[in-house]
Design goal:
44% helix; Rossmann fold; extended; 16 strands; alpha/beta; disordered C terminus; 5-stranded parallel β-sheet; Helicase, Ruva Protein, domain 3
Amino acid sequence: MVDTLLVIDDEDAIRHAISRAFADCTVVQAGTLAEGLERIKDSYPDLILLDQRLPDGEGLPLIPRIRAIDPDVPIVVLTGNGSTDLAIEAIRIGASDFIEKPFKLERLRTTVSNLLEKQHLGRQVARLAGKNPGRQGMVAQSGAMKKVLNLVKRVAAVPATTVLIEGESGVGKELIARAIHERSARSSKGFIAINCAALSENLLEAELFGYEKGAFTGADSKGKSGLFEAADGGTIFLDEVGEMPLALQTKLLRALQERRFRHVGGLADIEVDVRVVAATNRDLRAEVRKGTFRQDLYFRLRVVPVTVPPLRSRPEDVLPIADHLLKRLAPELGRPDLTFTEESRAAMREYAWPGNVRELANAVERAVIIAETDVITPADLCLDEHLLEPEPAAGAASVAEIPAGALLFPAGQRNLAAIEAMVIRAALSESGGHKSNAADMLGINRTTLYNKLKDLDPASLDNEVPAHA
């Protein structure tokens, strides 16, 4: 993997010298704070070299904004006016190191190399622990996804607008939500995410809105602030909002409309300034019709809808995403020389990806782990082709799906006498015409069966649909 370095410095000579010194990396350059912030959002660098004095301000105040975009990226502060106090302040607010100008390139190489190695190791540990490693870029080659990203940029420019992200599981709805936050004026504040389907109603309410001491059994003796307070000034992401219980939807609606709420067990209103981004894989219109989701909340959330298309509808994104994932994952998992064979690339192009981008990411990670050579074959991807078998058309019945002897009652046929005749004929057929055995199967005695046979109209039986498959 080729690492990306971002150099934010107003001196051309320094930027060019660093570019030459790190010829094995991709070096992105910026001459101002504003330009540097844009490059961070666009390129997701692996390491940032930040000058302290720039034409449009000092470098240190940019560090918290960088941390809001990427909490893990190493930041090295460069300055020609170094002091112990400045160095301490830089480290305190999130810088990884501090280098005074003029500096020797060898010293810079050593610092950068050590920080990148630590960065790669940290991501590998996070991945092995099953945690999100933090920084994830979005790859979009298809027209459909480019439209989504253009909409993200427009929405991000209006920092208070509520957004509803719709799409199947695994399409990357949280990535879209983070992109909206990172490109907005709220990026210097927190991005707080919660899965509304993961907690019970009481726990979800307590997590979102906080609670007063003694509000319920087991509550912290000092009370607790909620996620809306933690996100004040930033963004709160409500994943799977369609799973939220109706009673809690009412409280969320008030928080959205009035920008205020109360702790569980509290009496005082708390005002917050947050952008709410919600996501769902459900059809909320259908949930509204069923009465499981409030119509007024639906319209309040859906100020700007962002629909993320499934991966199968944008096949031109598959290979660029796979290449991006391999570039990131292979070095982290100790396999930097891995490549895809043409056969594996063809297999990925042809596969429908029912699990969307999440399934693609899992397939690439699995292949990196199990590939026995320096190339990834279709077998290494372990694609689940059985999921791709076509489903029967609505209303169609397959003989293999209907057990032998099962009765089929035609639509609209609910006449009890006709159904009884059908059941009796089926029992006689299965017993080979043996009336005693048929009576046992029907749970009646032989005399009752004879009486029922006398009452049956043979003509009506002849008009019945076949009784069994």
